[in-house]
Amino acid sequence: MSLIETSTSPYKKLERRFSRLAKLSHAETFLHWDSAVMMPDGGAEGRAEALAELGAIRHELLTHASVPETFALADSELENLSENQRSNLWEMKRSWQQSTCLPVDLVQAKTIAGSKCEHAWRDQRQANDWAGFLPNFKEVLNLAREEARCRQAAEPERFTSPYDAMLDLYACGDNAAFISEVFGDLKSRLPDLICEVVEHQKSRPKIELAGPFPIPAQQTLSHTLMDILGFDFNQGRLDASVHPFSTGDYGDQRITTRYNEQEFLQALLGTAHEMGHASYEAGLPSEWRNQPVGESRNMSIHEGQSLLFEKQIFIHRSFCDFLAPKIGAAFPSLNNFTGEQLWQLNTQVKQDFIRVDADEVTYPMHIILRYEIESALINGDMEAADVPDAWDEKMRAYLGVSTSGNFKDGCMQDMHWTDGSFGYFPSYTLGAINAAQLFDHMKKDNGNLETELASGNVNSIKTYLQENIWRKASFSESQALMLEATGQGTNANFLLNHIRARYLQEQY
Amino acid sequence: MSLIETSTSPYKKLERRFSRLAKLSHAETFLHWDSAVMMPDGGAEGRAEALAELGAIRHELLTHASVPETFALADSELENLSENQRSNLWEMKRSWQQSTCLPVDLVQAKTIAGSKCEHAWRDQRQANDWAGFLPNFKEVLNLAREEARCRQAAEPERFTSPYDAMLDLYACGDNAAFISEVFGDLKSRLPDLICEVVEHQKSRPKIELAGPFPIPAQQTLSHTLMDILGFDFNQGRLDASVHPFSTGDYGDQRITTRYNEQEFLQALLGTAHEMGHASYEAGLPSEWRNQPVGESRNMSIHEGQSLLFEKQIFIHRSFCDFLAPKIGAAFPSLNNFTGEQLWQLNTQVKQDFIRVDADEVTYPMHIILRYEIESALINGDMEAADVPDAWDEKMRAYLGVSTSGNFKDGCMQDMHWTDGSFGYFPSYTLGAINAAQLFDHMKKDNGNLETELASGNVNSIKTYLQENIWRKASFSESQALMLEATGQGTNANFLLNHIRARYLQEQY
Asked: How many Å lie between the alpha carbon of B237 and the closest alpha carbon of chain A?
């Protein structure tokens, strides 16, 4: 790879190498988008081969034998670098470390075991077949433990446990000690609060809406919502896919949602959620694009943006008042649709089995349960075979439902662990807290915020996020970002207060 | 690039290297498709950078210092290779030679000059500004001459002129001596035949169809046409773009067409044409995918397939009878639409200025004119400044119209020369002849062919092409392919006879 060796400063050499990596990532990003949104089934084999080749080339570039020496040389001339360049160097090293610390054999074994386990799981889950799933899952877990040990061993000064090293892949900066503290606050108060909300909602009238809701009208509504939330269609697009997601690169943010003719809320919630992710990406500083420090901070901050758009803006009572008439106009059967109805549809709370169907009140308990189990699994304090009992016990304690013998709706419901993605779950709830905390701060800062939302105006929200989160990319650690933006680190009280205010109409 | 050095046989090493190249091409292919079909404007900058990076990596892989030695080693053990492997080795060398024979400076200068000339041409053409265009065009021509000289010098045994070396990029196997012979036959008879056809059509009633023709209905019709022509929508898709094109990879053929609400034929003709290209690609032998010999033969054969679908099948009188009622049913204003009307719309002949708007009867003269001028330009027998006069003289002689002073509709109408793509044009007419010749052979071979077309059945046509052209990929030279398929090499008489039969109702 001779092209990168022509510039002189070691730091600049690294910048060029990482810029090449980013351009390969661009290719992978849009090929993945195409696979999920456009590609016919027949293309799968050729696409998988091409992506594997791109991954191999990216790995060769990143793990090239010259890189450690170039890092050492760059370290020896730190005084010549700006503070931002030093941050970039640090992020380069983190990325390089994550890619080089695992033995090639382990990476291959992990890919094969994860793919096998996930593939079999699709049928095993339907069949409630824990006994069939367990051997595959054990294999995945053993390899993930090995991975976590290697990652910890590579940077023992940063990681106090194997699980901490896994968390760093998703929630960089939010370690297990910190998460335990934040989740501890939630855990001590949320289960009772859930019961209180459920009791409070008992007298609610049930809203039944008659479909069908034609998909072209839903698509138009999603576009309308994106216009309201300030999406630039010269810089991105909306499509449909089985699972909503957001991806893209500089100048081209692509989001998807899913449509169901019997129900229109899911598409709009998906659109609002992915709009948050896409707005973050679109707001990253263009002068640092293609460099590691120019990327989004971590998944906790990312989910903070998406959940802010979905839970704080879209479900806000004032915004519901603004949006409901537009929904009513889109579907003849809903011509008297009110903001109150829209809000009630979005705020129904139920203690139930399935995480992805859970409301914002019960959702954190689904996450805390997974956090407790996966950290114990990775650190060797729990075995794979013990998961169903632990799951049932925690579901009964946290949400009052039992999953005994019901693996399908219990510990076999998620895909994350099947391919070894341990450490991802906490970001969902850290993000929900970050969203509530950021929104609370904006509300205190801007007395007109609710009036603005009542007219569909999100300008001040976007300006605040642009200034305090998006443009800061990865220049600060996640907790420093939250501190600078809101005066304190991620604090569960903001989510608890938000729930009390929205669901029990308590002022705080 | 260490991954490719693990297998032992030099031939196998080369196979692995070319397989990696093919996987990078897959990425480039679908990113180009995305740029033309899906990408918002904002994505252009990042996409251009990513494509440049992929191109650079592909070039590094192909021109790696170890390659010449590996070729030499592979040559020394030819006796261990099958005939097909030897053909593959030959195609690998051709591809390598084409990529390595030009100095890097020349490639860069060519890219810059071509990009500058093409960009300025977009406005200059509209303004009829030959004087403004000429300096840029001179620069492009000088660099193309240099390119052609380098290419010829690299393989003097294969190329008898610089222009021959350029032809090899597009029409590999059909050299200038051969093309001059084929085009000579056309040139001696076609201008008179054109006059005869125009005279014959003077009494034709003019068909005026009242639009608009809603685009969703046109899209459905294009899908219907693709179903009839045997497209597998699990192995590809149809979309819209500014210029129709066909691209893709194994298992995923993507074609586009363009829609105009005032006129429905253009979309259907585009669909039929691109179906020919896509069917060829889909019919290539999957066991040789990702290898050079597994690719389509050349542009003359490729246009042979697309023009066979467009000109021989779609415009066939029997097929028009089959298709017309489906078109009539799609548009309320056309409910009495007949096969005769569809056929007449598709067979209107006019001596006119613009190649891309030309009918199949006059089209070859547009190509012969360009062939004569571009071969003289590249071989140094004509200068850039002389092009307008040569153009006017030939247009008057071949098509009876003058382009004197009308550069816009004369020598400035095409994009090909603006970025240095000399040698491409002949394939269009070689393809038209190949299409007529293949169809004639099938008709003589299968007495039911016209009856089959009258019921929209193209199975026997596709089976014949699959067996005689598509599955043979690049295992034979183009003229050997035509000989094996039809008993002779590309012969202009087949196109002339087709024209006499279709336009003058003469039997042959």
From this structure: 7
- Sequence-separated (6 or more) residues with CB below 8 Å from residue A1: A20, A60, A61, A64, B60
pTM: 0.94
Closest approach of A479 to chain B, Cα-based (Å): 31
* B interface test, pick of A5, A252, A284 with most B CB neighbours within 10 Å: A252
Count CB-CB contacts under 10 A for residue B503. Answer: 20
Return the half-sphere exposure (C-beta side, CA atoms, 13 A cut-off) of residue B212. Answer: 7
Both tokens of A371, joined, read 């956090």
CA B32 from chain centre, in angstroms, equals 17
A400 inside 8 A of chain B by CB: no
From the candidates A15, A274, A281, A360, which is the catalytic residue?
Answer: A274
Domains of chain B: 1-100 (no CATH), 215-333+340-345+430-479+492-504 (1.10.1370.30)
Q: Which residues pair with B263 in a beta bridge?
A: B260
Q: Are strands B252-257 and B246-249 parallel, antiparallel or unpaired?
A: antiparallel
Most confident of A5-14, A99-108, B127-136: B127-136
| Cβ-Cβ contacts under 8 Å, B39 against chain A | 252
Longest dimension (CA), chain A: 72
Interface membership of A35 toward B (CB under 8 Å) = no
What ipTM was estimated for this complex? 0.93
**Residues of chain B found within 8 Å of residue A252, distances taken between Cβ atoms:** 39-40, 42-43, 46-47
Residue B225, number of CB atoms within 10 A of its CB: 24
Is A49 within 8 Å of chain B by CB?
yes
Cα(A299)–Cα(A296) distance, rounded to whole angstroms? 8
CB proximity list for A304: less than 8 A, separation 6 or greater:
A430, A431, A432, A433, A434, A435, A438, A469
Max CA distance (Å), chain B: 72
Partner residues linked to A260 by β-bridges: A263
User: How far does chain B reach from its first CA to its final CA, in angstroms?
Assistant: 60
Tokens representing A391 are 């799951």
pLDDT, tens digit, 9 for 90 and up, residues A268-297 = 999 999 999 999 999 999 999 999 999 999
- A274 assigned to active site: yes
CA B70 to chain centre: 33
- pLDDT digit string, tens, across residues B352-382: 999 999 999 999 999 999 999 999 999 999 9
Q: For chain A, what is the radius of gyration of the CA atoms?
A: 23
B72: tokens are: 């030499």
- How far are the Cα atoms of B42, B470, B473 from residue A288, in angstroms, in the given order? 17, 48, 46
In whole numbers, what is the pLDDT of chain A averaged over residues? 96
pLDDT at A65 over 80: yes
CA angle B402, B406, B407 (to 5 degrees): 115
Q: Which amino acid makes up residue A53? A: E
Strand, coil or helix: B263: strand
H-assigned helices in A265-421: 265-282, 299-307, 317-330, 339-346, 363-379, 387-399
Residue B34 predicted with pLDDT over 50 = yes
Q: Which amino acid is at B459?
A: N
B271: distance to nearest CA of chain A, Å? 18
